[in-house]
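ZP: hey, is the LPHHDBUD complex queued? I don't see it on the tracker
AM: it wasn't, my bad. submitting now with these inputs:
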Amino acid sequence: MDYPELALHIAGRWRTQTQGGRRAVIDPATEETIAHLPLAGREELAEAAEAARRGFIQWRAKSALERCNILRAAAQKIREQAKTIAQVLTLEQGKPLAESVREVTLSADIVDFQAEEAKRLYGRLVPPRVEGILSQAVVRRPVGPVAAFTPWNFPANLPARKLASALAAGCSVVIKPAEETPGTCMLLVRAFLDAGVPPEALNMVCGDPAEVSSFLIDHPAIAKVSFTGSVAVGKLLGEQAARHVKRFTGELGGHAPVIVCEDADFSFALKSSIAAKFRNAGQVCASPIRFYIPRSRFGEWSEAFVQAARALRMGPGTDAATQMGPLAHARRIEDMQRFVDDAVERGAQLLCGGQRAQRPGYFFEPTVIANAPPDSRVMRQEPFGPIAVLQPYDTLDEAIDSANALPYGLGAYAFTRDLHTAHRLGEALEAGMVGINHFGVSQPEMPFGGWKESGIGQEMGAEGLLHYTEVKTLTVGVPA
Ligand SMILES: NC(=O)c1ccc[n+]([C@@H]2O[C@H](COP(=O)([O-])OP(=O)(O)OC[C@H]3O[C@@H](n4cnc5c(N)ncnc54)[C@H](O)[C@@H]3O)[C@@H](O)[C@H]2O)c1
Ligand SMILES: O=S(=O)(O)c1ccc(CO)cc1
């Protein structure tokens, strides 16, 4: 499989030679270097931000229909190249190739949806309260150049969410993908540019994440910051944006509970749970983490869950038989081990896995922990990896309280066959996305965002576009 020569897109030019040096991009399935990524220096970051200022003026001047047509052409290009882009994604990130192909085609769908929404960015006319007013309108206008920061777990989907909404609204962008997975984003950026987005309106930079984000957020050309990543970093970037009163969207971490009710179809719930838990090796912000199981059926559930976890085929994403790939980088392995050791030291039972796999690559065994005390790290922080925690409960009220106990609220799930219980849980679970009897809460047409510390704002759906706009009250009086 081929991996492309990496370049940054700054002020209308692709650049392979940059002032910030370069870093290796590693295949997480083999630990081998597959490419070198040029890194931007401060002057190049300034060039990108200034270009975004000029690009914004050109791009916002286009009609909504023109923007829609260009973005739909970009979506088509992404779809046509889906296999190639997916291969790059799997090489740099590790997930199974079939998952990468799905991610890339879904990214094209996200771009299509936001492109169409550009034509529906309606305002409204409000009857004036005084005489002599011809029109009193509420309209939405693009917020301005956006600095967008995306992580490595969905190298196509997450840049697509930000690029699609920002560009559809008429904003220009400087995007910084994760340095671990820059190739996929580079191919997406190329598709947008080839489709007709003005070259200065779309910039891609990489570098030291903290230095790049700090520089861009402080730069006067940047009007809005959009970040996906950890709660801790989200708080830092949000604070920095707030100091300039710049707009901020944060898609941060979660710690999703799953309540399996006494009346649930256990075999369906279990099969869906295993697929959702270990997809992308658990590196999904809305991934299920805490499974609350009725005490009377805890043994049965634990046994079947462990059996299914042990049966998962781990391997490189390029192998068609692989069900779970490696973690994205070496630090994740160390972090998984800390989560497991801490839980066991505090009295939890390790039912399976719990260690790095004995093979090259950043593989960590599918891990199941039971009865983790509430103060264990795995019950308080997002493991962001292939670790499931099984907890017994006695009453549904108790399960709901436990599910809502953390300061996060991204995804939450439940399984029941009773319609009343489904509605009750749908209301009671405190999360931006609640899935009853299914885990598919991330869809191009639906808003995706967190409650509590899990984030601020939403991406995708009609709401996604609105976060890239400002509201203007526009009153036109009768000329004197
Ligand atoms: N919400 C998500 O989709 C998501 C994705 C990836 C990681 N994470 C969270 O991050 C945690 C750790 O991941 P990691 O080991 O890669 O750690 P990390 O904090 O170094 O990196 C996480 C992501 O944030 C970016 N980042 C880090 N510091 C930044 C800064 N100051 N400015 C801009 N971007 C910055 C990184 O480039 C990376 O893409 C995970 O446990 C998980 O909770 C969340
Ligand atoms: O693959 S998706 O289900 O659409 C998905 C879910 C969550 C995230 C954010 O981590 C990205 C994509």
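AM: back. The chain has two domains: 8-252+454-474, 256-443.
ZP: great, adding it to the tracker
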